[in-house]
Amino acid sequence: MAEPVRAEQARLKAAQPHRVGRPKETVVTGFLIFDDSVHTRPKGQAMGGLGRHYSATEKKDVSGHCLFSGLYVLLDQRCPLEPRMYCQKRVCEAEGVPFQSKIDMAVEEITGFEPVPGTHTHVLIDSWYHCRRVRRAATERGWDVSGALKSHRVLRLIQEDGSRQWLKLSAYAATLTPDDWVEVSWPSAKGGQKLYAHLVPTWVRKLGPTLMLITCHDPEEPLKSVRYWGSTVMELTAQALVDILAVRWEVETYFEYGKDLLGSDQYQVMTRQAILRFWTLTACLFCFLEAQRAAAHEVTLTCGDVRRRLQQEHQRNLLQWLAEALQEGRSVDQICSQLAIEPGKVQG
Fold first, then answer.
1. What's the rounded Cα separation, in Å, for the pair 163 and 42?
2. pLDDT given at position 348
3. Per-domain residue ranges of the chain
4. Distance between CA atoms of 303 and 292, rounded to whole angstroms?
5. Per-residue DSSP letters for 133-170?
């Protein structure tokens, strides 16, 4: 990605308006996104690392494995992070392996991750990972952090007389009037979704200075669909912050591809190491499909489209090879031998 980054920096410099003085420094941002995904295993009692995890799909605790991973998104190209397995402390103790919480894993990834040179990194997380430790690990490297917040978080309001008031986010949202909201557009492949947003720079307890963003679908009844977000970048507009937060959806798409397209939850292996190897192979396959998608230079192309194209191409190549082999006079037994098929096993 070094060459695309240099090309993007040159494009940004050329697009700057001519003015007196030193031109502004161009910034190419890469997004580092963390999340986890539960792989249900109701009949896998003998599998290593098996535990009880909450499934957002089934809305309950299920028996299975928890995959901790993420994406690095840079210039519309995506690269998965190394898959890791999260296990509860009791499972780790029973199997004699060190315990790491999800926060421990996120902090370790931030500390050890090496972004593409010449880029700035912005960490995107959901409310589970939005805590002091993750923020501190990112800010120590000079990175930004943005993500969802839970409604019980507490923000600070400074009154006109200088006094300070601390309110839960849900209580603060209840005080907003329809005039406090502005219309924004949440980016999507279908052209964007209309939302209403309220932006306030504040201090969030146990997090520090935060640019708070509250969104809803109806400013007349905001509490029916309200959501809370926070960022360490204090100078953003509401729309700019929404554009950044929308990038986090890429990790949800990645996990969906992993299960539905690449079969990351279709393993039958038993040990933790074998499961991690399986997940690593699916991540490598995603890397390959993503590289093919980028090489096609088609904006609307998905990894699923690339997979279908490759399958069709190889099916056509096989038929072409079979036709040429028959034209050259090779027998069916010879063709089966080259295809590593036992002649007696060929079915009509």
1. 55
2. 42
3. 144-247, 306-345
4. 8
5. HHHHHHHTTT-EEEEEE-TT-EEEEE-TTS-EEEEEHH
